[in-house]
């Protein structure tokens, strides 16, 4: 009707989920970074995997609620189960969009708002954002000038702020920083909880998203900053997890993931190829 004012757009509710075991300082810095966001999350859930020292708290006006998840008898971190638990919690609380951040990742000021806008515009896309790996000694003290440290990892797309790029490669999906609409999450069905320990569950999730009919996209304004911690390359201490999860991935998708690590293990004489893939020597 002439003169009718359009109904206001319903606000998008955003829940942020982080899974953690240790890394308490990194988690605290992440909490502080989220509290500086241009658009605060409506819910912030930390899933503590076998870590009773992580407790619910409020930092700079942003509350975080903690959900405990126990470790299995073998002690392997239940990353897939924990992510599903966190997503279920924020969705049951009314979230329209679920944002997942690795415990080491600091959110740029625009990240929450950018993911919310992208998922509202195109709810059938699994969205990721560029991640910068910070050098040692940078992170929590640099929250007011993270943009000055922006240097996205070259192995992943890094569109400019304000740009959305779709048609992404599912094998480039990573779980450091991503977002999905409530409908998209329901279509994928969450992470496969048969994966335990290190590796494979995030690549599986990217494949599952494509199989469920979702596109993969990148949000230029959803910048995140990964705080430094010591790493082992290749990750020999996770060798058994990688072999077990790799075999599961092969069973589900017909090929092995993490081939770069497997080739490095082979060069060190730690694994050998078999008719079905790889095994420990």
Structure description:
- By secondary structure, this protein is an alpha/beta fold.
- It has two domains: about 15-225, Spore Coat Polysaccharide Biosynthesis Protein SpsA, Chain A (Alpha-Beta Complex), CATH 3.90.550.10; about 235-280, no CATH class.
- It has helices at about 25-35, 80-90, 110-120, 180-190, 200-210, 240-255, 260-265, and strands at about 15-20, 45-50, 55-60, 60-70, 95-100, 105, 125-130, 130-135, 165, 175-180, 215-220, 225, 270-275, 280.
- The strands form three sheets. A nine-stranded mixed beta sheet has the order 3-4-2-1-5-10-7-11-9, with helices on both faces. Strands 6-12-8 form a three-stranded mixed beta sheet.
- Strand 3 and strand 4 form a beta hairpin.
- It is globular.
- The model has no long low-confidence stretch (mean pLDDT about 95).
């Amino acid at each position: 009707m002439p003169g009718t004012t359009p109904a206001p757009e319903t606000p998008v509710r955003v829940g942020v989920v982080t899974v953690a075991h240790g890394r308490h300082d990194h988690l605290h810095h992440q909490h502080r970074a989220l509290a500086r966001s241009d658009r605060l999350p409506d819910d912030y859930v930390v899933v503590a995997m076998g870590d009773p020292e992580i407790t619910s708290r409020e930092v700079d006006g942003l509350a975080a609620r903690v959900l405990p998840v126990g470790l299995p008898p073998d002690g392997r971190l239940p990353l897939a189960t924990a992510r599903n638990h966190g997503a279920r919690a924020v969705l049951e609380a009314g979230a329209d969009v679920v944002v997942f951040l690795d415990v080491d990742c600091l959110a740029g000021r625009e990240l929450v708002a950018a993911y919310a806008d992208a998922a509202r515009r195109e709810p059938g896309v699994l969205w990721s954002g560029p991640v910068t790996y910070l050098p040692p000694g940078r992170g929590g003290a640099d929250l007011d000038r993270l943009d000055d440290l922006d240097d996205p990892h070259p192995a992943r797309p890094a569109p400019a702020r304000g740009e959305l790029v779709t048609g992404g490669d599912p094998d480039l999906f990573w779980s450091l920083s991503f977002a999905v609409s409530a409908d998209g999450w329901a279509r994928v069905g969450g992470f496969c909880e048969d994966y335990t320990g290190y590796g494979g569950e995030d690549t599986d999730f990217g494949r599952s998203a494509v199989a469920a009919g979702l596109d993969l996209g990148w949000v230029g304004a959803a910048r995140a900053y990964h705080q430094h911690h010591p790493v082992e390359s290749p990750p020999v201490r996770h060798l058994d997890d990688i072999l077990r999860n790799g075999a599961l991935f092969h069973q589900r998708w017909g090929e092995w993931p993490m081939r770069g690590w497997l080739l490095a293990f082979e060069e060190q004489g730690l694994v050998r190829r078999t008719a079905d893939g790889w095994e420990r020597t």
